[in-house]
Hints:
heterodimer; A: mainly alpha; elongated; B: alpha/beta; 8 helices; 7 strands
Amino acid sequence: MSIANYVFGIISALIVLVIVIEMLRRRRLRERHAVYWLLAGLMGLVIGIFPQVLGWAASVVGVSVPTNLAFFVSIIILFFVCIQHSSELTELETKARVLAEDVALQDLRIRELEQAATTR
Amino acid sequence: MSASLDRTLIVMPALNEEATVGDVVREVYAKLPGVRCLVVDDGSRDATIAEARNAGAIVVRLPFNLGVGGAMRVGFRYAQLHGFDNVVQIDSDGQHDPSGVPELLAALETCDLAIGARFAGEGDYTVRGPRKWAMTVLSTVISGVAQVKLSDTTSGFRASGPKAVELFAEHYPAEYLGDTIESLVIAARNGLSIVQIAVAMRPRAGGTPSHNPFKAATYLGRATMALLIALLRPRVSAHESGALL
């Protein structure tokens, strides 16, 4: 592996971590959404600095090509991120629906109160 | 008498029904003296609200479209807040004949949920192809869950008694097809008794029913999925989550 290749891996992982931590710092990202990205960035950094870790992990689980293990783990992480987003979208839709119901009922109540007030 | 008309709220979900909603409301008031009629406007972009109000209905306006399930939830919550015992759902397109309501209410004397069914003898409502298979599968499975013979599980013409109103105000499903299929599963699992009453259906005053085979097949798929998910879900009980009102 060339030195450029080695540095490239480490810098990529660092960029991921810097972006995630900076967004956390500026409150543009909530902790629970950042967990998977932090995990991915840290794993990328460790494997970037010690590439032999990936080879060792691949031999432990019986994957013959170590990069395939890296791809597999990446897809798993993306899967969890997507599931988390879908689940929170569902939750937000439910909240929006309940708010819409409340708004509609309160709207009617205000209308009725106004009518009662003007006819009095 | 729990099923008397002045303890009953007629709920009509309406989406862009300006052509029919006024007449349906007037027909309800003419045929069912003493009843209150709540039109839930589900984000219409036409004169539905004005038409319904002119006809004398109470109108609730949803800020955006929630589907029939969401509109019915508002109806059930309104009924609960204002002390109505029974809720009868009627389509605002004129498909349901209000003269069937007293029969549904009479059925509530002995049970909790009465469904006005289209195939139970009266009227001449027919479907065919995948839509018919879907309805057959649905009615077979739901009849098993509810332990009562039901032939028309997707009918929107139904009357809910006090126990059903309490349960549905909290747990009426808002998803597509949830308002018909999943609501029956929820009711049956909570020990509510369901009964089917034969009613005549009129052809829709506006719009034509779809006979597109692809749409019917999609309907079959979505209905089956809605049913499977409804059966997989854990039981719910009334007074579980706290809504604002």
